[in-house]
Design a protein that fits this description.
heterodimer, A: ABC transporter involved in vitamin B12 uptake, BtuC, B: alpha/beta, six-stranded mixed beta sheet, four-stranded antiparallel beta sheet, 10 helices, globular, binds adenosine-5'-diphosphate, binds magnesium ion
């Protein structure tokens, strides 16, 4: 081989490495969006409501995580000890999802449930109202400025210091938390009695009742699960992005909601796929086009997909009825 | 002994529109009762009222002597009233097997459920062939069989059947009626709503005739079959 072709190969590999890096960033971010998107899509699947407050439940979850870390640090929790670190994260992943689940169920009980038989617009407008209320709670709790979320996890490249692609412990953390959660959710919905009852209720609530399914309980369970996923996402987001603010629910909620629509609203694998597509679009957008155009790019993709596949990537085709 | 089911002076409607105007129906244990009447008379609403999906504005539903009107639908199923609703209402994206499992949702006796599943497949072999297929991809007849089999998975004391013959090939209707008769011989009571009045009355012990929200006639099925007014209005030629 001549040295010339060697050089060409090196150039190409630089190109591929950049591409690989963006893909990695896109997928990691995408998994976060997917986790939030699942909450939108599951609730929509069951009661055909876009729970605009979902993003703000996520935001409050991250505030709780931050508060917990501050308290724990104040009591000399040693985050630099790997065992304590993972134990602490485990604790956050227990408490914050529980909090978000309870909050989401309460919102449904107090605000949406009384409107179950009202025209669809009523709960929708209420959801926007709840979103504003929660955002203001966040504003009071955390203030208007961005807040630093402690950088507890190492940014050291797991692939080696001089590897061309960076895959840090932080990236690994995102994957290691989100993937098992999504896998567990899939198994739950596919294979368990309650999961099947959830799908049945989503497909035909009247028939579900006639089977003996308590659909109020199924709806509450759906809000609880969606909230818990948002809570887990809130912990991961804080640890990964290291900045939280009262507006993060709106911004990320919008992306996650877009992901849900993109994948086919009401469709669980669709939400995951949509999340990954949005994550990738944002990563490639800011890598190759420029940060400023990222949001526009995401929505161009959304519109393009909805023009060609109005039900979303994996959305149900119009229902067969004989 | 009180009747198995007694609907007493039942009034209900949708919003301001009252569609049931004082219905009274009884079903004795082990009995097949047909409810016939033209389109829009309120037959489906009556069944929905019994199974708890339509709330009464007045009147009672007694199950083995106890009031059940106003209970949520899922609690009524637990008492042994299973409903194969109009339009089948199969879960389109659950498999045939999952649809049947949902029929047994109110039960906890896992072993007996498994036996009842096998039995559904014996009664309707086509469902066994299609067990892994999504409910929405079945033909109309197969869906109706699934709807009946799914209701039977609840081990009903009383089966509510709404227009099982609608839009189906005669052979399939015969098959479904055959299954109903067989299960009735084993003690299950049936309240059957049908447009195909002649067939329904041939299967039933007793019948009720319903017109715009009221019961206008009731008698033994044979008597209704030979009644001049019933023949003219519902039995055609
Ligand atoms: N969901 C509904 N909302 C409003 N009106 C209804 C609804 N369902 C049925 N109706 C009306 O109630 C009346 C009785 O209908 P139904 O019980 O379906 O009669 P049948 O089963 O005898 O054909 C009809 O006039 C019908 O238009
Ligand atoms: Mg009807």
């Amino acid at each position: 081989m001549t040295s010339l072709s060697f050089l060409a190969a090196a150039d190409a590999s630089g190109l591929w490495e950049t591409l690989g890096q963006y893909t990695l960033i896109g997928l990691t971010n995408g998994m976060l969006f997917a986790l939030i998107a699942l909450g939108y899509t599951m609730v929509y699947g069951i009661i055909e409501l876009i729970n605009f407050a979902h993003g703000d439940v996520f935001m409050l979850g991250s505030f709780l995580a931050l508060a917990m870390i501050n308290v724990m640090t104040g009591r000399d929790w040693d985050w630099s000890d790997p065992q304590m670190l993972w134990l602490g994260i485990g604790l956050l992943l227990l408490v914050v999802p529980l909090f978000c689940a309870a909050l989401n169920v309460t919102i449904d009980r107090v605000v949406y449930k009384p409107l179950r038989r009202a025209p669809k617009l009523a709960p929708l407008v209420s959801a926007i109202g709840v979103s504003f209320v929660l955002m203001n709670v966040g504003l009071l709790w955390g203030g208007a400025a961005d807040r630093h979320f402690p950088d507890l996890i190492s940014r050291q490249n797991l692939l080696g210091d001089d590897a061309a692609i960076g895959f840090t412990a932080k990236d690994l953390m995102v994957v290691a938390i989100t993937v098992p959660i999504m896998a567990a959710l899939t198994v739950f919905v596919k294979a368990t009695r309650l999961g099947k009852a959830m799908r049945a209720t989503a497909q035909d609530p009247v028939a579900a009742q006639l089977m003996g399914i308590n659909i109020d309980r199924v709806i509450a369970l759906t809000f609880a699960l969606g909230g818990a996923l948002a809570g887990a996402a809130a912990v991961v987001y804080g640890l990964y992005i290291n900045t939280v603010s009262y507006q993060m629910g709106f911004q990320n909620g919008l992306y996650a909601f877009t992901a849900a629509v993109l994948g086919g609203i009401g469709n669980i694998p669709g939400a995951v796929l949509g999340g990954l597509v949005i994550g990738l679009a944002r990563a490639f957008g800011s890598g190759y086009v420029g940060e400023r155009w990222t949001s526009a790019l995401v929505f161009v993709i959304l519109i393009a997909i909805l023009v060609f596949r109005p039900a979303g990537l994996l959305g149900a085709r119009t229902r067969e009825k004989v | 002994m009180p009747p198995l089911l007694a609907v007493e002076d039942f009034y209900a409607g949708y919003g301001p529109i009252e569609v049931l105007k004082g219905i009274s129906i009884e079903v004795q244990p082990g009995e097949i009762v047909a409810l016939i009447g033209s389109n829009g008379a309120g037959k489906t609403s009556t069944l929905m009222g019994i199974s708890g999906c339509l709330r009464p504005s007045r009147g009672r539903v007694l199950w083995q002597g106890r009031e059940i009107q106003g209970l949520p639908a899922h609690e009524i199923v637990c008492r042994g009233i299973c409903h194969a609703p109009e339009g089948r209402k199969i879960f389109p994206r659950l498999t045939v097997l999952e649809n049947l499992q949902m029929g047994a949702f109110s039960r906890r006796d896992t072993k007996q459920i498994e036996r009842d599943l096998q039995r559904s497949f014996e009664l309707f072999p086509v469902l066994a062939q299609r067990r892994g297929q999504a409910g929405g991809t079945l033909s109309g007849g197969e869906q109706q069989m699934l709807a009946v089999a799914r209701a039977l998975m609840g081990r009903p004391t009383l089966l509510l059947l709404d227009e099982p013959s609608l839009g189906l090939a005669p052979l399939i209707v015969v098959k479904i009626f055959e299954v109903v008769r067989q299960l009735n011989r084993e003690g299950m009571a049936v309240l059957l709503v049908e447009q195909a009045a002649r067939m329904a009355l041939k299967l039933a012990h007793r019948g009720y005739v319903m017109e715009i929200g009221r019961i206008t006639m009731t008698d033994r099925a044979e008597a209704l079959l030979t009644d001049k007014r019933v023949q003219d209005a519902y039995l055609g030629e």
